[in-house]
């Protein structure tokens, strides 16, 4: 929402969440428009733990070029085709409003000053670009007072970073691959709000990675172009899994949700391994997390935990609040209390946990030391809401960047 | 060949080689007959480095039960359906000879005493069962003076251990999946003898494995039953690769041979990862070996090395003799001279190597320490011959086991 200031600096600020896919996006059928080869589905994570905060501002008094500052560092906006595509799409929508209603201030003609900051380290290997582009699109849309729905805005955010389109909504979000060449039907939509299944928790095990293998933008096209297994996943496996996991979410059927999540993570990494040259994102620590989850589920006698891995070694473990002690409690006992990140909004159920929820003799002995040595921190979070408009601006009323 | 002794103890002794597949066998369509879901192709490794030595003997004076001693330990032969199937098939062939020619001694009625030993530790994670069953079948066939060709005997060895059928021949060996339900056309055959392309070398990096993940017999059926990517490999990818690698072998086209070998290893492990629960055989050391090979090929500017991994973390690196310094020389420089296994028949080209063939600044720095810490020994070998009849018996003329 734009607020008119004395010096005609217009501002709007939003937060946006990270999302972690349970049916993975991997492969583009159009690299310019970021059109995916398959649909995907994610859980939006709570902004009590992880969020991007972005202020979009504009003023006729600003120097002519749009600027973007991220975590205190000016970005080369003119060389980022993806950022330019988002801004140009948003300006066009504002221009249409102004053309239809001449009484509106001509914000589309003003230079933009955008300031953004994450509350988590980029080095943690979390999908910061999704939250970043979602916040940018949402903030500018608010500044321009655009009437478009999150679903409609997802078309724009997608061009910034594919998975960003899913961070415009909370809860359980599907990104439909769409069929049209111009991408106009490749949109994100809410499958269920966070309130439908609020008990979902996510424990991120941040793995001390060396250098990342292959950036995902490059890696996914290597897979599309070289993996002979890839088409089978994109064309026949994922469509079935999308239907099945949407049903599992509708029914709040955790065991079903969990199995599909784990299997799709495995299939995704299998297509990476099948690429040429092969791409490895999981390492021995990741594999220890896989074994841990299978061992916990086996020991408990039902499926209480699900792992998933993005294009990096970090494990995200989904579980339900009621199983906190069995899952997060066991991880806490293995890692030891010294591992950082246990504090925060979702910690209540675990404060008093001192013994593992699952006795450690049920866990493959190889797993314990590998995890203890390899996990540098945890992030304890849960399903959460979409972008939220806030009044804490990163640009002052006179257009100065707030010092951080 | 049987030799009649004073006390009517008949003996025949053979060696048999290990083979390492370049198109992997993974999955049975019939678990009793060991009929594979797809054809496979392997390189028979020289017995100068690795071999099983097996003496088959029989005598009317032996106690009634067949016995098998392996590496000094009596085996529970009666509980091994696979061993019993091999012996019963071989006896039936002998019986047919005896029925046709009544002057032959009735060896098929004598109890068997079989003694076998490997010249390599079972713990090395090499496919010892392939060499073991090939030697057992070849030794008994010799004892019985069976006229069947290695191709015909491969039908029997296959029932002991699938990949054993490929160890009955030297050089480059294909195992055709066959189409008949009784498995009579699921046979191994020589694609090219070792002499066609004798320059092929194999460097085995023995990785200090913890406990093995899932035994291959169990693992492959998990993959068949659960991986949604598996059918694509078995039905469409492997048939194309079989044709292509046979052409590469015919043309002695190492770069083509190498790429297919590496890609099929990756696809095989991808289907393991896609299994439910997932199966991991490669670890961080294996992945370092993958990176090393890609880095060497990149630095040299042509494909001089190819990795492949069986159901375990050991890397087998194929290369041609002329590239010994570039490939094995670089590995030797990375591992240091203290790593055991460099000596032996194929070491000549490397004795004088002190500097890496490829400068180590071309190798991903993560690779160097991981390999140095993770590889416990190497085995330097090359393509070799099939089973060889020898006079060094492991059973004396009077039927006693030779003390080892």
TrEMBL record, chains A, B:
Keywords associated with the record? ATP-binding, Lipid biosynthesis, Lipid metabolism, Lyase, Nucleotide-binding, Steroid biosynthesis, Steroid metabolism, Sterol biosynthesis, Sterol metabolism
What is the reaction catalyzed? (R)-5-diphosphomevalonate + ATP = isopentenyl diphosphate + ADP + phosphate + CO2
Please name the GO terms that the record assigns under molecular function: ATP binding; diphosphomevalonate decarboxylase activity
Biological process GO annotation list? isopentenyl diphosphate biosynthetic process, mevalonate pathway; sterol biosynthetic process
Q: Name one GO cellular component term.
A: cytosol
- Ranges for domain Mvd1 C-terminal: 202-389
Q: SUPFAM superfamilies given for it?
A: GHMP Kinase, C-terminal domain, Ribosomal protein S5 domain 2-like
Which class of enzymes does this protein belong to?
Answer: lyase
Keyword flag Coiled coil: no
Q: Which residues form the Diphosphomevalonate decarboxylase-like N-terminal domain?
A: 16-188
Its EC number is: 4.1.1.33
Q: Which domain of life is it from?
A: Eukaryota
Where does the signal sequence lie? Answer: none
Q: In which pathway does it act?
A: Isoprenoid biosynthesis; isopentenyl diphosphate biosynthesis via mevalonate pathway; isopentenyl diphosphate from (R)-mevalonate: step 3/3
Q: Which family does it belong to?
A: Belongs to the diphosphomevalonate decarboxylase family.
Name recorded for this polypeptide = Diphosphomevalonate decarboxylase
| Organism of derivation | Penicillium cinerascens
């Amino acid at each position: 929402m734009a607020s008119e200031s004395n010096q005609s600096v217009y501002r709007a600020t939003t937060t946006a969440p990270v999302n972690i896919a349970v049916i993975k996006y991997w492969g583009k059928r159009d690299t310019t428009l970021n059109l995916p080869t398959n649909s995907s589905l994610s859980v939006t994570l709570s902004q009590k733990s992880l969020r991007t905060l972005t202020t979009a501002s504009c003023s006729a008094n600003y120097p002519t070029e749009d600027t973007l500052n991220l975590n205190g560092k000016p970005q080369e906006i003119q060389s980022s085709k993806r950022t330019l595509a988002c801004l140009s799409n948003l300006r066009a929508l504002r221009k249409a409003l102004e053309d239809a209603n001449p009484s509106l201030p001509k914000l589309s003609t003003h230079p933009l000053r955008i300031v953004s900051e994450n509350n988590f380290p980029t080095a943690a290997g979390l999908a910061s670009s999704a939250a970043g582009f979602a916040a940018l699109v949402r903030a500018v849309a608010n500044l321009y007072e655009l009437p478009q729905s999150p679903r409609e805005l997802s078309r724009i955010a997608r061009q910034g970073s594919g998975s960003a389109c899913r961070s415009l909504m909370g809860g359980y979000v599907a990104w439909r691959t769409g069929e049209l060449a111009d991408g106009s039907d490749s949109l994100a939509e809410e499958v269920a709000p966070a309130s439908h299944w609020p008990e979902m928790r996510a424990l991120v095990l941040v793995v001390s990675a060396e250098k990342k293998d292959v950036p995902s933008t490059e890696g996914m096209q290597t897979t599309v172009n070289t993996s002979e297994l890839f088409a089978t996943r994109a064309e026949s496996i994922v469509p079935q899994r999308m239907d099945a996991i949407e049903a599992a979410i509708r029914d709040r059927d955790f065991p079903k949700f969990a199995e599909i999540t784990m299997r799709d993570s495995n299939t995704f990494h299998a297509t990476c391994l099948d690429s040429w040259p092969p791409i490895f994102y999981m390492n021995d620590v990741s594999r220890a997390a896989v074994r841990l989850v299978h061992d916990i589920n086996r020991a408990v006698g039902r499926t209480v935990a699900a792992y998933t891995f993005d294009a990096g070694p970090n494990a995200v473990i989904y579980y339900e609040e009621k199983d906190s002690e069995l899952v997060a409690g066991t991880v806490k006992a293995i890692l030891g209390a010294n591992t950082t990140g246990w504090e925060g909004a979702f910690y209540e159920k675990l404060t008093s946990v001192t013994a593992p929820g699952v006795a450690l003799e049920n866990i493959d002995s190889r797993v314990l030391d590998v995890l203890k040595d390899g996990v540098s921190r945890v992030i304890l979070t849960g399903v959460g809401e979409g972008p939220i408009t806030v009044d804490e601006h990163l640009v002052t009323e006179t257009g100065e960047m707030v010092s951080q």
